[in-house]
Design goal:
Blueprint: E1 18-19, E2 30-33, E3 35-36, H1 49-63, H2 83-86, E4 94-95, E5 109-115, E6 123-130, E7 136-139, E8 162-172, E9 175-188, E10 191-205, E11 214-217, H3 231-237, E12 245-249, E13 262-265, E14 278-285, E15 288-292, E16 294-296, E17 303-304, E18 308-312, E19 319-321, H4 323-331, E20 337-341, E21 344-350, E22 360-363, E23 366-369, H5 372-375, E24 376-379, H6 385-388, H7 393-404, E25 413-416, E26 418-420, E27 429-432, H8 434-437, E28 440-449, E29 452-459
Parallel strand pairs: 6-11, 7-10, 18-27, 19-26
Antiparallel strand pairs: 1-4, 2-13, 3-5, 5-6, 5-9, 7-11, 8-9, 9-10, 12-13, 12-28, 14-15, 14-29, 15-18, 16-17, 16-22, 19-27, 20-21, 21-25, 22-23, 24-25, 28-29
This protein binds 2-acetamido-2-deoxy-beta-D-glucopyranose (6 copies).
Residues 53-54, 57, 174, 206, 390 line the site of one 2-acetamido-2-deoxy-beta-D-glucopyranose.
Keywords: Aspartyl protease, Hydrolase, Protease, Signal
Organism: Coniella lustricola
Domain Peptidase A1: 109-458
Length: 465
């Protein structure tokens, strides 16, 4: 069935980062190839409900906190590096082999980050490059399983940098991280931020399902909880990049492009997109937040008027829409059903839904189609009913009666990659995650819109089928 995501797992070995300077790349474009580690779809195309919920829980943990501060827009920072400093820019190309796990989990993209290379104690961590947050954190030396650092084989920061003697604590709706603040040099794809703040976690809750070692926040410094400048804004300030932007390509296992996943620092990779970019100005320099005009389903029947704000978030697997918008959108997809679960609404829809009924999102007057391959998290199998309902008997019964209407039962239905939830104080905030970004090469630029920050989208290469 076309809309069912068929995944194959490759037992992977983590390769050491290898420099390949001879590779033909645009000058000064530094890249990290990001591995796709977690998957929410089983190899037979059915959804892995448990890992889907773990992924969703992580999204809600990250976004769902009323205590997550909302910051007013700040002035554009570090608009341009001097021409003289451009001469000193590094050119390096760092590549990694993708790593897969046979177990089904969430979806996330990560790559290697080296701490402490400059002081002769390099340590490599696998971090999620997260455009929805602004801090770097890694496990600290003292963080054991009982402290929430549940992956005993993860590297632990050796404390070789300068300890600031302060702590950073981030509270989430259903989790938290706390760690000791440090300054050390941080290197990604050969680009060095020599005076980088981050925190070494000594206590974490609610992040058990993250398999990467930690997070490298790529949103704006204004929301950094450790009060330090972000990694990328430091690179700009140090004149380490040619262009004040980074480009993200998220591959897809179903299309065989997972190994092409990449973060380009200081430019965009022209081999990863086609056509022209649409520039969407950033509306608040906090998250990579932009205005969302509307969502359309089957253009012929007209757009759904649900304007709002969207955080373009590489660190979230799905798309989360405000509940009123989600209801409106999903009501336009024939035979879809919503299940309210503890504050969020989960949707299922017929797997054979024609592509024209898969939602598109309008930014800056342009329509961006969500790929049907991404909109479906996978088909439901009969044994998933109890898990899917999270023990709610009303929902179990509803699912059974839906199954009864279809010759093949529930396996004709797929879980939607769009969830309804009201996450923050920001009115009508959509979190637009990997389900969208896989289809649209995304450039996060500090100066693309008349010198102000913008997110730019162009069609991703290799993601059509
Ligand atoms: C989500 O997280 C909360 C708090 O950590 C936990 O109690 C709950 O069981 C989780 N739900 C699912 C479906 O995993
Ligand atoms: C930071 O956290 C550690 C460990 O909990 C604690 O011992 C220390 O007093 C804290 N430091 C500050 C400045 O709060
Ligand atoms: C960051 O600044 C805020 C506001 O001034 C302060 O409350 C907080 O303790 C600071 N955090 C760190 C880690 O320095
Ligand atoms: C390093 O960064 C801190 C704040 O993050 C700043 O106060 C300090 O001046 C910086 N030092 C250098 C040498 O740039
Ligand atoms: C079970 O689900 C139904 C339908 O979504 C909802 O109305 C009800 O509140 C849920 N029950 C509990 C105990 O959460
Ligand atoms: C999807 O499958 C159902 C059941 O076989 C069928 O009635 C319906 O016409 C199909 N829809 C599309 C768009 O193919």
């Amino acid at each position: 069935m076309q809309t069912v995501v068929a995944l194959s797992f490759v037992a992977g070995a983590l390769a050491l980062p290898a420099t390949a300077p001879s590779q033909a790349q645009p000058a000064s474009l530094n890249k990290v190839t990001m591995g796709k580690k977690h998957v929410v779809t089983r190899s037979d195309g059915t959804a892995d409900v448990a890992s889907f919920y773990a992924s969703l829980n992580h999204t809600l943990a990250k976004w769902g906190s009323p205590s997550l501060p909302y910051y007013a827009p700040v002035a554009s920072q570090q608009a341009a590096a001097s021409a003289a400093r451009r001469m000193a820019k590094r050119q390096a190309y760092e590549d990694l082999t993708d790593q897969y796990e046979g177990t089904s989990e969430d979806a996330a993209y990560y790559g290697p980050v080296v701490l402490g290379a400059g002081d002769g104690h390099p340590q490599t961590f696998q971090l999620i490059f997260d455009t929805g947050s602004s801090d770097i954190w890694v496990p600290g030396a003292d963080c054991g399983i009982a402290d929430g650092c549940v992956h005993p084989l993860d590297p632990k920061y050796d404390g070789g940098g300068t300890a600031l003697g302060t702590n950073t604590s981030i509270e989430y709706g259903s989790g938290s991280t706390e760690g000791a603040n440090y300054v050390d040099d941080v290197t990604v794809a050969g680009l060095i931020s020599s005076n980088q703040t981050f925190f070494a976690v000594y206590s974490a809750y609610g992040f058990e399902e993250i398999d990467a070692d930690g997070i490298c926040g790529m949103a704006f410094t204004s929301i950094a909880q450790d009060n330090g400048t972000t990694f990328f804004e430091n690179l700009i300030a140090e004149g380490a990049v040619d262009a004040n932007e980074f480009g993200v390509y998220l591959g897809r296992v179903a299309s065989g492009t997972e190994d092409d996943s990449e973060l380009a620092l200081g430019g965009r990779d022209s081999t990863k997109y086609s056509g022209d970019f649409t520039t969407v100005p950033v509306s608040s320099e906090t998250y990579w937040q932009v205005a969302l005009d509307k969502v359309t389903v089957n253009g012929k029947t007209g757009g759904i008027n649900t304007p709002g704000q969207a955080a373009i978030d590489t660190g979230t697997t799905t798309i989360v829409a405000p509940t009123t918008a989600a209801k409106e959108i999903m009501a336009k997809i024939p035979n879809s059903y919503g299940f309210p679960l503890e504050g969020e609404i989960l949707y299922i829809f017929p797997c054979n839904t024609s592509a024209s009924y898969i939602p598109a999102i309008e930014f800056a007057g342009e329509s961006f189609q969500i790929n049907p391959l991404d909109f479906s998290i996978g088909a439901i199998s009969e044994e998933d009913i109890e898990d899917l309902a999270l023990g709610n008997q009303t929902i179990v019964n509803d699912l059974k009666s839906i199954a009864a209407t279809s010759a093949s039962g529930l396996s004709d239905y797929c879980i939607a990659g769009l969830i309804g939830a009201d996450l923050t104080d920001i009115e009508n905030l959509y979190v637009v995650g990997d389900v969208f970004i896989k289809n649209w090469y995304s450039v996060f630029s500090y100066d693309a819109s008349s010198g102000s920050p913008a997110v730019l989208f162009a069609p991703s290469i290799g993601q059509d089928s």
